[in-house]
Amino acid sequence: MGDNFTMRLPKPKGLYLDRSKTITFVFAGKHYQGLQGDSIASALAANNERLLSRSFKYHRPRGILTMAGRDANTLVQVEDEPNVRADTYAITEGLEVFAQNVYGSLENDWGRFIEHIGRFLPVGFYYKAFYKPKGIWKYWDTIIRNFAGLGKVDVNATPYASDKAYRFCDVVVIGGGPAGLSAALQAANAGAEVILVDENQLLGGSLNYVRFNSNNSQTLLTREKLVNAVTNHPAINIYTNAMCTGWFADNWLAIMCEQRMLKLRSQVVVAATGSIEQPAIFRNNDLPGVMLGSAAQRLIYLYGVAPGKLAVVLTGNDDGYGVALDLIDSGIEVQAIVEMRTTPSHSSLAAAINAKNIRILQGYTVYEAIPGAGKRSITHAVIHQISSEGTVNENSHKIACDLICMSAGYTPAAQLLCHSGGQLKYDEADAILKVTQLPAHGQSVAAGSLNSVFEIDAVLADGKYAGWLAATNAGFPNNEPANVPHHVGAQGQNYPWPIFPHPKGRDFIDVDEDLQVKDIVNAVKDGYDDLELVKRYSTVVMGPSQGRQSALNNMRLVTKEANRSLNGITITTQRPPYSPEFIQHLVGKAFQPVKHTAIHYRHLECNAQMMSAGLWLRPAYYGNPENKDTCIEKENLAVRNNVGIVDVSTLGKLEIRGPDAAEFLNRMYTFAYAKQLIHRSRYVLMTDSTGVIIDDGVACRLGEHHFYVTATTGGVDGVYRNMLRWNTEWNLNLDIANVTAAYAAVNLAGPNSRDVLSCLTDDIELSAQQFSDMEVRTGHIAKIPARILRVGFVGELGYEIHVPANQGEALWDALMKTGEEFEIRPFGVEAQRLLRLEKGHIIVNQDTDGLTIPQETNMGWAIAQKKPFYMGKRAIDVMSARSLDRLLVGFTMPSDAPLPEECNLVVNNNEITGRVTSVAYSPTLKSIIGLAFVSPDQSEIGKQFNIKLSNSAIVKATVCPTPFYDPENKRQEM
Amino acid sequence: MKLMPCPINGLRNISEFICGGEVETMPDPSTGSDQEWAEYLFIENNTKGVVREWWMHTPTSYWFIAERNTETEEIIKTYPASDIFKQRVDFTQNKS
Q: Residue A129: its pLDDT value, please?
C-alpha cells in the first residue's frame, strides 16, 4: 500500500465508510483506492491528492472547498456524465473519472498561461474587447467557449430508465438536520403524515459533523436518539439522497431522487435547509488546502480523512474553535488560530483550545496563502494584524501550514424558500442574511439555522416548535403546544467584514467565475452599482454554485463600493432549480396518450399505415409504404368507380337536446336551423366572435328538439367547451353532450355503396327518392342500431353510418364482407383528402388560418343574414362591408408540372400575395389541382398566378372554378 | 403548481383547468356601435388587482367563475356561474 491511505483516520471517524470494502477507481489517468462510502474527493484526499480541477477562466489549481457539493472546484467528468461534483459523488469499483476544462493534463495544464495575461482580462472584458470590428465575435466565440468549457456531453450516452412519482403528505420537512429531525418527529407525533427529505446519504445534518460543545458526546447521543425515533416512526416517510430542487406555488415541490423525480404536494412545508458556510477573502484563498471549516469537519467525521497535516484556522466566530478541536483530535497540528475578532471568545470551545495551549492571534487575519509548487498546494499562511474594516497593518507572521480552515460565518440556505416567494434581508447588527418573509402561497415554517438559530439546544427547540406549528396548520392540533422558543439569534455567528483585498490580487470573491475583489470594484466603477447589474456584468454568483459561497461577500463589497447601507439589502432573485437536474428526470417516462377508434385493429389487419390526427391514430392508406402513391391512387379510384369505406369515428359528435336546441345552433353556427326539417342534415360553420372560421360539420335534426351535430376531429373539444361556456351565460333550455367516443362511424362511398348497404338493412328505404342527399335516417345496418347520413364530402353517393362504438367493428366486418363481391376497398385519410380536394371542399385549419373569414373562402352561402345574432355576426358584418384582402381559389396545373407543396407562396412581382393550402395530383382528373389564397385581382377564373416552389423555382397555376370534379354534384345526388 | 378550488370538484391542480378570459358584458349586438364591439373583442382590461374570470375544469367540462388577484396570484374565491348569470339571454332583431 505504501503511501496510500496516509490521511485516513481511524474509527469512529468516517460515518459514511464501510471499511471492509476497498474500491479501486481511476482519476485523471491514475489508479486510486478508496473505501466503500467514499466520495471521489474524499478518496483522493485520503490518498493526499488535493488537486481536483482547474478554474474556469485562469485554469488555477482547485481542490476541496465545501465538501458538500456546493462549489465548482470539484466538478469532474464521470464517464459520459459531465459536471459531476466529486465531493459528493460516491466511488464505485472501476469508476473512471476525468478532469474537466484542462489542456494537457490536470497536473500540468497549459491553459494556466491565461492567468499571466489576466490583467489584460478585466471585468466586462468580453463586452469590451470582442465586438469590434463588427462580426469578430463569431471568431472569438469559438475560442472562448473552448477555453471556458465545463465537461463534455456525450451525445451517444445511454439513457437509463427514470420515472416520476406523485406524493402527498400533511407536512414535508426539507432537511434532516437537528431542526428537521425534531420538526418531523413533533409533527408525526401530532398525527400528521410526514415526508422527510435530505440530500445526504445519512440523516443528521450538522449533528453528523459539527462540534457544538467541547465535549462532543452529547451531540452524538442527541443524533442517535433523534435519528432512531424518526426512522422508526410509522408516520414518517424518509427520502435520503434526495434533493429538493424547486418549491412552487401552493407547496408543490420537485424532489430529485436517484432515478426518479418526486412531485410532492404538502399542506405545510417545514424548511430546515440549514445554512451555508462562507469563505474569507484573502490572496490565494482559492488554492487547494484552503477550505471551509465545515469542509474539514465533513472530511473528518463523514469520510474519516484528515484534511491536512499542519493547519491554520482562520475564524471570526466560535465555530472555528470547534474546527480546531476536531483537527487536533485527528492528529493534525494546529499552528495557530487566527481570530479576526479583537475580543477573546468566551465559549466552552475556546476554553478547551486555551487549555491545549494553542496559539491564538487575536485581531489578525490571513492576508495571503503562499502557494507550493505549481500552486497545487499551500506552504504558508501570511498573517497580518487587522487595522480597520478590510485593511491590515505591517504586524505580520508567516506560519508554515498545508491547510487553512475558514470560519467566517454563514448564509441561510434559503434558495428554496425564495422560489416560492420568501425573502431574505441583510441584518447589519448580526452581519447576516435573515429570512424576513415566508412564501406567500401555501403554508410554511422555517426552522433551525435557516431561521438564524445556531445554538444546538435552540435549534432543537426551534425544530420542535416548527413541527408543532406545521402539524397544527395541517389540521392536527397538538394537545401539548410546544413553547415558542426563545431565539438566541445569530449574534456572533458572522464576522462582519472578512474581506481583505491584496494589492497583488488573486483574492477571489467568486471562485466559480474567477472573480477577484478588483473585478467587483471595477464593475461598480463602470456604473453597475446594483446587485442584479453587477451579477450580469461580471457574472458573479452566476457559476455552478450560484453564489452559495460568493453572494454574501459580493453584496457586502458592492454596497460598500456604491456607498450604500447594507441594512435591509436583499439578494439577487433565486430561481429553480436549486441544484442541477437531469433533463431525463424532468421528462420521466414518455407518456403520450393515443386514442384508437373501435375499428383500429381491423385497419392493422388490412396493413394500414397509421398516422396521428390529434390524439387519434387513423389509417393514412392501406398497403406498403414503398407503394404509397399507387395505394392512394387505387383507393381514390375505388371510391370514384366502385365503392370504398373509410373509418370516420374520429369525427366530433355532439348531441343537442331541448326546446331551445335550434335556437342554440342558430347562435353557435352561421347558418339557419329553426326551420330545418326533421331527418334533414345541414352544413354547420362555426366562427368565433371575431368572425374567423373555427370549425365545421353537419347538423342532423333527429327530432323537433334533438340535433346530432358533427365537428372536426381536432376541433370538437373546443366546440364543446365553447357551447357549454355560452349556454352557461345564456341559460337556454337544452342539454349538450359530447358523444364523440360513444359512436363509431364509417363513410361508405362510391357508386356501388347503395348496393352494398341494401343487402344489410330491411328497415331503411335506400332509393334516391326515399332517402336523398343531405337526409338522415335512423334504423339498423346488419342489425346494429345506426344513424345514417347521406353526405357528399368525397363527392360520390355516400352513407355515413354512425353506430354505438362497441359495435363499430361488427359494422366494419359486415360491410367488408358484404362488399366483397363488389370489391370494396378501405381507404385512408390521404385518399379522403384527395377526394374532397377534387370536390373543392375545405378542411378547417388547413385551408383556413387564424384570420380566415367565411367570405374569403366563398362561403357567404353558409351565412344566414337575417338572424339577430350568431357568434361572429357583428365582426363579419363589419368586414363584409370592406373589400377583401385575399380569396381562396381553386387552381390547376398540367400533370407534368413540378408538384408544389402546401404552404408554398403565391408571389406577384416579388411580393407575397398568398399561399398554397392544399395541392395534389388527381388521378381522376389527370392534372394537378389545389386550393390557394391569392389576392382578389389574381382570383379571376382563367387567370394565371405564380407559385414559388421550395427550391425557389417559379411555376404557373391557373385559377379554376371548384368543384374540380362533378361541378353539378350529380354523382353524390344519385 | 397552483391549486384551484373548483366549486364542484374541490381543490385540483390548475393544469386541469383552462381560463376562459374575463367576465365581460357583451354589448347589444343589434344596437352597440362598431367601436363598442371592437373594444369588446380586442381590448383587454389587463387589470392589476382582482379580476373576475371564466374558468373550466376540463375533465368534468364545468364552467365557473373565479375571482383572482393578478398581482399576488391569489385565487380569492370561485363560485358557480349561475350566481351571476341567472336570466335567460335573448337577442332581438334590430328593427331599424
A: 65
Over residues A77-111, the pLDDT tens digits come to 998 888 999 999 999 999 999 988 777 778 777 77
Can you tell me whether residue A833 is helix, strand or coil? helix
The overall pTM is greater than 0.80: yes
CATH placement of domain A1-154: 3.10.20.440
Tell me the nearest-neighbour CA distance from B1 into chain A, angstroms: 5
Residue with cell 465559549: A347
Structure ipTM = 0.97
DSSP-assigned letters across all residues of A771-806: S-TTBEEEEEETTEEEEEEE--TTSSSEEEEEEEGG
Q: pLDDT tens digit string along A639-676? A: 999 999 999 999 999 999 999 999 999 999 999 999 99
Q: A725 to chain B: which residues are within 8 Å by CB?
A: 20, 54, 56, 63
A187 versus A111: the higher-pLDDT residue is A187
Residues of A (683-702) whose Cβ lies below 8 Å from B: 689-690
- pLDDT tens digits, A741-777: 999 999 999 999 999 999 999 999 999 999 999 999 9
Give A-chain residues touching B15 at CB under 8 angstroms: none
CB pairs A-B closer than 8 Å: 67
What fold, for A279-407? Answer: FAD/NAD(P)-binding domain (3.50.50)
The predicted-structure confidence for A209-260, as pLDDT tens digits, reads as follows: 999 888 888 888 999 999 999 999 999 999 999 999 999 999 999 999 988 9
Cβ <8 Å between A868 and B1: no
d(CA B79, CA B64): 6
CATH number of A500-561: 1.10.10
Do the domains A279-407 and A165-276+411-473 match in fold? Answer: yes
Q: Is the pLDDT of residue A361 over 90?
A: yes
Q: Where are the domains of chain A?
A: 1-154, 165-276+411-473, 279-407, 500-561, 646-823
Interchain contact, A249 vs B56, CB within 8 Å: no
Residue A582's φ and ψ, nearest 5 degrees, are -85, 130
Q: For residues A11 and A298, is the Cβ–Cβ distance under 8 A?
A: no
For the record, the C-alpha cell of A20 comes out as: 471492509
Q: What is the mean pLDDT of residues A880-898?
A: 94
Closest CB to A440 among B41, B56, B72: B72
Residues of chain B in contact with residue A728, where contact means CB-CB under 8 angstroms, are 63, 81-82, 85
A621, β-bridge pairs: A609
B81 and A441: CB-CB below 8 Å? no
| Residue A230 contacts residue A185 (beta carbons within 8 Å) | yes
Please judge whether B88 and A866 are an interchain contact, meaning their C-beta atoms are less than 8 angstroms apart: no
Domains annotated for chain B, with CATH where assigned, are 1-24+48-85 (3.30.2270.10)
**For the domain A165-276+411-473, what is the CATH superfamily, name and number?**
FAD/NAD(P)-binding domain (3.50.50.60)
Smallest CA-to-CA distance from A518 within A129, A63, A118 is with: A118
Please state which CATH number belongs to domain A646-823. Answer: 3.30.1360.120
Interface of B with A (CB under 8 A): 1-3, 18, 20, 29-30, 32, 34, 37, 41-42, 54, 56, 58, 61, 63, 72-74, 81-82, 85-89, 91-94
Interface test with B, best of A265, A728, A738 (most B CBs within 10 A): A728
Tell which residue, B48, B74, B57, B47, has the closest CA to residue B20.
Answer: B57
Could you tell me which chain B residue has the CA closest to the CA of A737?
Answer: B61
- B47/chain A closest Cα distance in angstroms: 21
**A360 HSE (CA, 13 A, CB side):** 24
Q: Which of chain A's residues have a Cβ under 8 Å away from the Cβ of B93?
A: 866, 868
